[in-house]
Design brief:
Layout: E1 3-10, H1 14-24, E2 32-40, E3 43-50, H2 53-71, E4 80-85
Antiparallel strand pairs: 1-3, 1-4, 2-3
């Protein structure tokens, strides 16, 4: 079973995303099976699929939040997050 994490950040643009992404570096992200990003009506939308919630939580604590800090970015408290254990997927 996989873990899906969808983040919607109103007012955040691709420039900010790319700044944080540079801070993450090129090292592979353990446990992440796919990562998709785009802007919809002025809202940055990120969809990540993970092997498990533990993988997602570890990435956030060890790499993502430190990258936010290094990039000088503070996520807005109004950021909408939807996360769930996926019951199944079709190929």
């Amino acid at each position: 079973m996989s873990y899906v994490h969808i983040t919607r950040s109103a007012g955040t643009d691709m420039d900010t995303y790319e700044r944080v992404d540079r801070e993450l570096g090129a090292a592979p992200v353990e446990g992440q099976t796919s990562h998709h990003v785009g802007v919809v009506d002025g809202t940055l939308v990120i969809v990540d699929v993970w092997r498990s919630r533990a993988d997602a939580d570890r990435f956030a604590a060890e790499r993502l939040f430190p990258a936010f800090e290094r990039a000088g970015f503070t996520p807005d408290a109004a950021t909408d997050i939807t996360a769930f254990e996926a019951a199944g997927a079709r190929a």
